Amino acid sequence: MPLIFKERNIKDHIKNVPMSDQLKEAPASEKYARYLPSKEEIIRIAELIERFSGMKVDEKVKRGEIEVKFISSRNLRKERLNDELSACDRMNLEPRIYNKVKHRIKNVSGTPLQSRLAYFEPKNNTIYVLYDNFDKLIKEESLAYVKAGIIDGKIERHFFRKTADAKSTEEIEKFVVRDVLSHELTHQIFAGNNPQYQKTVLETDERAFKLFSETVKAEANKDYEKLKELSTEVESNNDHATALHIYREAIACSVTHNVMYELGFRIPADVRMARLPPQYKKGISFLDEINRATGQNPITFTMHDPPQSMREIENPELYIRRVKREVWATLD
To answer: Does residue 246 contact residue 280 with C-beta atoms inside 8 Å?
Structure first.
């Protein structure tokens, strides 16, 4: 069975793709199916993720079956907002505090999704494809790679043609979609290999929400001593959450680069690195340093005891020192 969609099953590359004037009427899964990898490509991507990460890939994925849910970025944000509001309801806050917390959640909830093609949600282990972003973001990504000066695939260091002809555009679109889905699939496989990490992430999120609610309460009561205490706790929890996020993203970026290179999409590492956020680069440097210091696969070495702070990511020797102390402690 090929890719599995919530709306319907689509065999490899869909036949009779609707014409442009019919696209508005077509279900999202049909409209964008032509961009997605075939069953055979998914099998190959899964094999490569397993090879480069050292993580075990689920048998279902190895058969080329992945579950993708098409959703608009707006509706995904609504889903996430409803989850947070439900958590707020469960806290039994007094009415004046409840209303303030609810108002704040509606204003700050969720990370921006307008710049994402796909998103992995660890809470329900689902890869969402944000179909309303597709056309705009694929064009933006294509233009960015053309501007980076990537040229013909006959030269191993480069892949795409510099001229924006139809063939090069199709090649870039193919690269962008496979790159994004490989990245999110790596997240999903990592989650399946490390339930404890997922538990830690969820606990950190819950603690952030609790601190957020307590801060709103302290502000309403003008309890400045409590606010000072909470500020320190919030900073510590945010640093922990950021470190976990950067670590996970660094793994996905590193694995995806190797997977895409092996598939023949040979984007120079310096071009790819230049397009990453600065903190992601710190995460990749952390993995590189762990590899140099231990001689082991940095993903399997760190997976069950990830970095606890940005300080450990920026100074990998602190991470190694802590892990060694914990290992020796278990032997005493």
So the answer is: yes
User: Mind listing the pLDDT tens digit for each residue in 121-150?
Assistant: 877 788 888 888 777 777 777 677 666 655
Closest CA to 7 of 22, 39, 34, 29: 29
Helical residues (DSSP H) of 94-165, grouped into ranges: 95-108, 134-147
> Which residues on neighbouring strands pair with residue 126, listed in sequence order?
121
- CB atoms < 10 A from the CB of 15, how many? 8
CA angle 48, 54, 111 (to 5 degrees): 80
Q: For the chain, first and last CA: distance in Å?
A: 51
pTM: 0.79
- How much of the chain exceeds pLDDT 70, in percent? 76
SS3 266: coil
**What confidence tens digit (pLDDT) does each residue in 256-310 have?**
999 988 988 777 777 778 778 899 999 999 999 999 999 999 999 999 899 999 9
Other C-beta atoms lying within 10 Å of the C-beta of residue 204: 18
- Torsional sign, CA 234, 236, 239, 241: negative
Quickly tell me which residue has 């013909």 as its tokens: 152
200 CB-near residues (< 8 Å, 6+ apart): 244, 306
Chain CA centroid to CA 81, Å: 19
Q: Is 241 exposed, middle or buried (0-12, 13-18, 19+ CB in 10 A)?
A: middle
Q: CA-to-CA distance for 201 and 217, rounded, in angstroms?
A: 25
